[in-house]
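Tutorial handout. Part one gives the primary structure; part two gives the three-dimensional structure as tokens.
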Amino acid sequence: MTPNPLRNGHPAPFRLTSFRLTSSRLTPFRLAPFRLAVLLLASSVVSVSMPVDCSGSPWRHEIERIEIPVGDLTFQARACGPEDGPLVLLLHGFPETSYAFRSQLVALGALGLRAVAPDQRGYSPQARPVDVSEYAVGTLAGDVLAMADALGADRFDLVGHDWGGIVAWIVATRSPGRVRTLTVLSTPHFAALSASRASNPDQAQRSSYFADLAADGAEVRLLANDAERLRHIYSDLPSDAVAEYMRALGNRDALRGALAWYGAAFGRSATTTKTEPPTSPDGPAESAEPATAPSDAASASPPPALRPVTVPTLYVWSTEDGAFGRDAAEATRRYVTGPYRFEVLEGVDHWIAERVPDRVSRLLAEHILTAGKDAESPIPADSSHR
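Part two.
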């Protein structure tokens, strides 16, 4: 029986019941027909404003700490849900860690998905190269595919926020055959953002901090006076999040690794850094173009035209975001030719996943369970095992 969406005039908690997702981790995402019907019926009565109640889930939904080996690097991660569930990778932004997705990990894990949020390059102590050139966006995107490989997933659902959103856009552009669905929180498509920085004074002003964070010694300035500037960035976040982020990033080595993303993209040497725009799902083209615009927003130009995003895409933007304006957010539609949904959260600031966790969890669940299903091949009649 499905829950009553209204109880005494208010949304009732959505209770997860004993349905199960099934998958072969190295084959496309498949659901037994009757189980898929239950999932879709459940999602059809859920409002994004309902509170999440995972008490009825048949799966463990406690967050685990895991390690993901990738070559010479080892990434720390938080994970939730059955290990054989369809993989969802969630990529955090700056200056956060995998802790930013703590609510979404539990919600997705309770649905039978294997939700994994890594502490990305520079944030994981054992994945912190010294050379800033090792933080180029193409390398960061390669980390995502390598982590999916290490976790045994040929295809996966991808979620990104802030810098994690930029990386998610790149992965979906370069490797659409690997990405089942894409969800980006806050961050416009990289081409839309670059164009808006060049042409829109409002976005240029919003992005002016990029160069400051890319400059040498930025970690020293952020940590001065008992990390006054870093703590100011966290001023609107809950105290538990501030404590966790300060524990992880409140030292020079860790913060330098996190800031290397800005140094590689917007630092002095970044204007001559080259990257290879992809022409096939899993490989680069033969020619090379500038990876990013110069840090001076006034002289910025859009990056080279890349193949549009073709995977089912959910883009969630909030009206009080101080980093990304409406111009770039609305222009993002031009760079997606696959199924596209644009959700605007009124009155919400940049920290979407932590400010309105239940709304984000429900949007993710709906997108992954419906758009992901539509993106797959037909389900065989005998696929109801597991």
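Part three, for discussion. The chain has a mean pLDDT of 79. Residues 207 and 323 are 6 Å apart (CA to CA).
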